[in-house]
Amino acid sequence: MRVVYEDNHIIIVYKESGEIVQGDKTGDTPLSETVKQYIKEKYQKPGAVFLGVVHRLDRPVSGLVVFARTSKALTRLNRMFAEGEVHKTYWAIVQRNEKDEVRGKRIDEWQTQENWLVRNEKQNKSYAYDHEVPRSKKAVLRYHFIGRSDRYSLVEVQLLTGRHHQIRCQLSTIGCPIKGDLKYGAPRSNPDGSISLLSHRVEFIHPVSKEPIVVESPLPDDPLWSQMIMNR
Questions:
Q1: φ and ψ at 98, to 5 degrees?
Q2: Which residues neighbour 77 within 8 Å (Cβ) at sequence distance 6 or greater?
Q3: Could you write out the DSSP letters of every residue in 216-230?
Q4: SS3 label, residue 129
């Protein structure tokens, strides 16, 4: 676990792929418990440590996770996430889609993608439609290509809604499945079981101090990420 930012009310950490944010049926130690232990030891806190989970990242995804250290921050951050006041930017290494480039989707041109997503609980997977269907929820994101190699493109994504597997599903829909994401059309898995999706930047007004907070994530420990950034 790497702490990227902390103060009396919030703590932002880097999640490795494979870690879970909150406890689940696997019984694996979640990141939230690791952060609690860090706070307990660093500040020599007796008894239980308060930590509020305000959002999650899928297990195979890496990058920034924001936690609340006080109940006041938790209440306000929950509202801010719900009302879209926390701006999250993701980077994804995706399969090259030459058709998009032919249609004029250039490196510096933002595109908006809208779909209606239906979540299949049993499969733990979302399906995208171009029109509203029963049980669907509207999903909107913006993206542009910011780098490329012979085989892959680097895409920057801004989420405008927060749906189950939204980025993974919608990028697959436009013919750009995320590297390693077998569930959404990648041809092969990554050796470590990760998918090449990074929660890269988070921006918001601090829920207590009202100061602007802008934090960027370190890159995953994978030479391809460094290569893609150099090719920007």
A1: -60, -30
A2: 10, 52, 54, 66, 68, 86, 207
A3: EPPPPS-HHHHHHHH
A4: strand
For strand 197-205 and strand 62-68, is the pairing parallel, antiparallel, or unpaired?
A: parallel
Which secondary-structure segment (H or E) carries 100? helix 98-102
Neighbours of 76 (CB within 10 A): 20
Q: What is the pLDDT of residue 147?
A: 87
DSSP string, 134-145: TT-EEEEEEEEE
Residue 45 vs residues 7, 42, 51, 146: alpha-carbon distances, Å: 15, 8, 13, 44
78 φ, ψ to 5°?
-60, -45
Torsion 100-102-107-113 (CA) sign: negative
**CA count, 13 A, side-chain hemisphere, 155:** 34
Q: Residue 188: what are its φ and ψ, rounded to 5°?
A: -150, 160
Q: List the helix and strand counts (H, then E) for the chain.
A: 5, 11
* Residue-by-residue DSSP string for 152-165: EEEEEEEESS--TT
The beta-carbon contacts of 73-76 under 8 Å, at least 24 apart in sequence, are: 73/9, 73/10, 73/207, 73/208, 76/207, 76/208
Q: Which residues of the chain have pLDDT under 50?
A: 102-104
Q: How many beta carbons lie within 10 A of that of residue 188, not counting itself?
A: 8
Radius of gyration (C-alpha) of the chain in whole angstroms? 18
Q: Estimate to the nearest angstrom the gap between the alpha carbon of 199 and the chain centroid.
A: 4
